[in-house]
Specification:
CATH topology of the largest domain: Rossmann fold
Number of helices: 10
Largest sheet: 7 strands, mixed
Helix content: 25-40%
Strand order of the largest sheet: 4-3-2-5-6-13-12
Radius of gyration: 21 Å
CATH architecture of the largest domain: 3-Layer(aba) Sandwich
Distance between the termini: 36 Å
């Protein structure tokens, strides 16, 4: 893992423009900082999707169960299941015939989730799979049971458009006719609302980005001085693209293991993309991949949508 981390960091910082993969935000401290971000007033995304699940849980069950009644609820990147537990508990109370299949590459995350579900919902059938998403789908022995795939939290927004289409096309090929995909999209809205979610008043998001430099220092013998970098998020309302950058405030050379990376004054490192969508964008993307949009579920402010697509 360290070798891969080192390779990706050095490759990214020696590219033009400089980049760092956002997946490396999530070490132990990064995980805790992101938990804090989700509780910030400015960070509306988690609250909006939680609200959708609370207010639309009956309608969602009707869509998922359909005439076949039985289904697998398959969640990509399940994490702690915070939002999904709202639906799992409700579906159990309604006597729905389903099993929950959380998928994650982290065995530790799956174990923690399965243990919490065992305590909170002992009657729930859980079949966790530690693997990447598409290999995990191949492991499902479902005998014709409908699969309902969850891809929540606007995770699709971490892809550029072409990457998103490629990912969804591969997913489409791994599903059977009649399977469903519930996918969360952060919608275009007041640019100030969006930008505040990535530049909060308490500076937690700044710390989340800066922690990536600390991680390089700690794990790869880096020499970053975070005081010489600024956290600079941006939002383009025309394209719907939110991006985060760490900008060097001076000319400097950073040592990383046996390598040196030179920065010009005000040179930026691209750390993250978060794409925002219009409903037209969403329907066009579904059509391009081959899915049919069955339902759109919104929070009260229409900041966020959970869109249900059918193959």
């Amino acid at each position: 893992m360290k070798n891969q981390f080192a390779h990706d960091v050095l490759e990214g910082l020696n590219s033009t423009p400089k980049t760092l993969p956002s997946k490396y935000f999530y070490d132990k401290k990064g995980d805790e900082l992101f938990r804090q971000i989700m509780e910030l007033d400015e960070y509306y995304l988690t609250r909006c999707e939680y609200e959708i699940f609370q207010t639309c849980k009956d309608d969602l069950l009707k869509v998922f169960a359909n005439s076949s009644h039985k289904f697998n609820l398959v969640e990509f990147g399940a994490g702690d299941g915070y939002k999904t537990k709202v639906l799992l508990s409700h579906f159990l109370s309604k006597g729905a015939d389903f099993q929950y299949v959380p998928i994650d590459i982290s065995g530790n995350v799956l174990k923690l989730l399965e243990n919490s579900l065992k305590q909170e919902m002992p009657d729930l059938a859980v079949n966790g799979i530690r693997n990447d998403y598409f290999k995990a789908l191949e492991q499902l022995e479902n005998g014709g049971t409908r699969n309902v795939i969850f891809f929540l939290g606007s995770n699709i927004g971490n892809f550029k458009y072409e990457q998103a289409v490629s990912f969804l096309s591969e997913l489409y090929e791994n599903l059977r006719k009649g399977d469903l995909l519930l996918i969360g999209f952060d919608l275009k809205k007041d640019p100030e609302v969006i930008l505040s979610a990535y530049d909060d008043n308490e500076g937690v998001t700044r710390e989340f980005n800066m922690n990536l430099l600390d991680r390089i220092n700690n794990e790869l013998e880096g020499s970053f001085d975070r005081n010489t970098f600024k956290h600079c998020p941006s939002y383009n309302p025309l394209t719907g693209t939110t991006e985060s950058f760490l900008v060097s405030t001076e000319e400097q050379t950073i040592e990383i293991m046996d390598s040196a990376v030179h920065f010009e004054a005000w040179e930026a490192i691209h750390t993250e993309i978060s794409q925002k969508y219009s409903l037209t964008n969403i329907h066009d993307m579904a059509r391009q991949v081959g899915f049919t949009v069955k339902n759109n579920f919104f929070d009260q402010q229409r900041y966020f949508v959970d869109s249900v697509w059918e193959k």
